[in-house]
Amino acid sequence: MSAWTDAHCHVQDAFVDRSGATTDEVLARARQAGVDRVVVVGTDLNTSRQALALAARPQPVEVYAVIGLHPHDSAQDRQPLRDLVAARPVGLVGVGETGLDYYYEHAPRATQRRAFAEQVGWAHEFDLALVIHAREAVDDIVDILASEGTPSRTVIHCFTGTAEEAERYLAAGCDISVAGIVTFKNAESLREAVRLVPADRLHVETDSPFLAPVPFRGQANEPANVAVVGAFVAQLRGEDVDLLATTTAANTSRLFALER
Question: Is the pTM of this model over 0.90?
Answer without folding.
Answer: yes
